[in-house]
Prior knowledge:
Elements: E1 2-3, E2 6-10, E3 16-19, E4 23-24, H1 32-38, H2 40-43, E5 50-54, H3 61-66, E6 69-72, E7 79-82, E8 96-97, H4 100-128
Amino acid sequence: xxxxxxxxxxxxxxxxxxxxxxxxxxxxxxxxxxxxxxxxxxxxxxxxxxxxxxxxxxxxxxxxxxxxxxxxxxxxxxxxxxxxxxxxxxxxxxxxxxxxxxxxxxxxxxxxxxxxxxxxxxxxxxxxxxxxx
Length: 133
């Protein structure tokens, strides 16, 4: 069985409180209530001040491997990552952004869409056959 990580965060700030990590093999998925009983960082919190997201197994694995940190955007409840910047190895504040894996996938899709549009435009121009007006 494969269980993705569950990330608990402060709903006011988006700061991560507990990341359960991914589990693989002979494992059992826990409930939110079980996690609050098992993790001291959650047990000491008022449950209404804590949000959580459940990720699929392997979801954002490359982003987690390459990031300097992550948080949950308190407004959108989306995960955001801070990545190392070679030009500024010790930034004062982390810059959180959407997962690069999603950004790359979106840009690749936009690139394909643009190429198709250009090919259609080129075909229309060729169909015109130089008939000027």
